[in-house]
Amino acid sequence: MAQHPRAASVPAGTPTTITQGSKSPGGIGESTLRPDGTLKVTGEFAYSSDMWHEDMLWGHTLRSTVAHAEITSIDIGEALATPGVYAVLTYDDLPAETKNYGLEIQDTPVLAHGKVRHHGEPVALVAADHPETARRAAAKIRIAYTDLPVITDEASATAPDAVLVHEGRTDHHIGHVPHPNIVHRQPVVRGDADAAAARADVIVTGDYVFGMQDQAFLGPESGLAVPSEDGGVELYVATQWLHSDLRQIAPVLGLPEDKVRMTLSGVGGAFGGREDLSMQIHACLLALRTGKPVKMVYNRFESFFGHVHRHPAKLHYEHGATKDGKLTHMKCRIVLDGGAYASASPAVVGNASSLAVGPYAVEDVDIEAIALYSNNPPCGAMRGFGAVQACFAYEAQMDKLAAALDMDPVELRQLNAMEQGTLLPTGQRVDSPAPVAELLRRVKARPLPPEQQWLSADAEGSSVDVRALPGGLSNTTHGEGVVRGVGYAVGLKNVGFSEGFDDYSTARVRMEVINGEPVATVHTAMAEVGQGGVTVHAQIARTELGVSQVTIHPADTQVGSAGSTSASRQTYVTGGAVKNSCEAVRERVLEIGRRRLGTYHPAWATAELLLEGGKVVTDGGEVLASIADVLQDEAVDIEQEWRHRPTEAFDLRTGQGNGHVQYSFAAHRAVVEVDTELGLVKVIELACAQDVGKALNPLSVQGQIQGGTTQGLGVAVMEEILVDPKTAKVRNPSFTDYLIPTILDTPTIPVDVLELADDHAPYGLRGIGEAPTLSSTPAVLAAIRNATGLELNKTPVRPEHITGT
């Protein structure tokens, strides 16, 4: 952190007037720069894949080549005999009684035993003195498989004679699901949807398919495990939740948690894909077996198998309305494919069902959401977490309903928009601002970009810039057959962990004097994955403690849990914890000041005191002392937990319950140009309006909104993991075949930020990271529909969907 000049010192207790200029800059509300920003853009930032130890070995994972099969034999002899190989491990080498792990349901084996349940499941591990040696040795392991029938969809999963993906389930969801191949089921029922349907003047239905999206983070899974002298292990890893990892790792290693010491390494993106374990246990096992540090780094191909993906979904919706556009009812059924292991599927089901109606006021609803076990790749957390799939469907329905009523689609949405005080289908009342109609008004009121931007005039006449056309530099058109379309969408997303989860965070804050200056140190276990928490924590400390110098301690498990960097929760929850601990430190500093200097001025006993600009000041601006003179050689160090308001589980029959702590809202307008002859799409603009409660760092807020919008764009027009429906094998595990938006694909993304405070949240803030991912996808689809007149009920939209070829 940059140092700021210290104000001229004055004798302790001498009152002066503080000026605005002497207050510490870089507090909340300012666009302070990321401390790691320059290092990242210059390539000097150390990611987890950059870690190194002098005598380290390299680990490699051998994965299954089939999706569902019995393992009849494993021969490691040739691999173990390879020069340079130090260890080859299989299931039989696991050291503890616990051999499975999982976020909620411990159904995922560390290494496959008896059978494999999905393509790419880990079967064996190799440690060698060179990564290529480890890879070649793993290729020498001989595994004999006997194929089993594959479960790939709802029909095959729930057939009366269906093969069970997991036999003998004992988890707490099994008692209320209609079939063992259903992970979890959550209905939400309110009012009488059938009776309300009878009152509807117009009813529209739709079937929608949402493809499997990958988080596509650029930094692959990686980490370094170092054995300790006490028999434990030090693990340096890129993850989203250090303490959740610890809870799962230690039992499998047969170690107490205090002997597994974890430190966060540089994280190259996450978006939910690092919430589950990948190489953590494997690296530790190899390090403990060999007695040497072991580094593991996945290549891009392996990364596609090494983490969960976004749940693909099939959704059936029905909406009814009166002739003036007022919604009468909504029915829907959402089927999410969770793949071979549970991961976060139960929570995704809870989100999909409870948010299935979207940001609309509807009294009569009948909702059901389920997640399947299948032999497809495991699916779990990804930005938007169940709400993305639902938003795609209900926003398509709103456009369909508007067309049936001959109404403007934005006006229909505004007519039915929820607001503060609205009762949700779960029975929970929205108790903070819900500016849905205003967000839609703002994106609609924005001027449209000019037509035919690919044309430019020069001295010789008009010229065409093909980069601005569908197809881009492939030069497929000069404007022939190109049609413009405009579409709108708005979404509803919860913030924080829900359904009664004890969602807390911990922060340790230390204040001391170093070289005559007060310095604050903030220590949390928050995983910085790019969201900007390290910046915000320093801003909070400057605001609450009045210092300019703030040190952010590396995140590790030597401090209490900060929870996961997911669910748009970290600024709210860990930011709340930092604020809470800073307030406690401030009070302790003031207590010290009263004890040491209280006789110098009566204000020590009577005034409301603040810390500003490195000074203790009254609320009237009088300086009573410098913080350095108050603390002298004494340090204040406080660690405290902080919790938001409690939530409660949804009723398993009706879905009623105050399940969420906060809601966030974003709206988009997409402008596209479509080559209707070739089926190519160019997104020209993707404008967003979002309520953020309070922008603690406006620059970071804008970046989060634009990033989330871009991920929504990706799944709209290009991103999908393709799985063979007959073999359940992944067909495109590379960035050659799995496409993500580049700078040439990403349009202008104007951002309109509202700041309507949520009085229940620290500083009135609202979690922001996920909401723009919801509505950007259906907005793009709506714009393509507007341009082509096609229904387009599947993501991503491919050229053949437009051309019909």
TrEMBL record:
Name of this protein: Molybdopterin cofactor-binding domain-containing protein
Aldehyde oxidase/xanthine dehydrogenase a/b hammerhead domain mapped to chain residues: 42-149
Bias (Polar residues): 14-23
Species of the source: Streptomyces salyersiae
Spans annotated as Disordered: 1-35
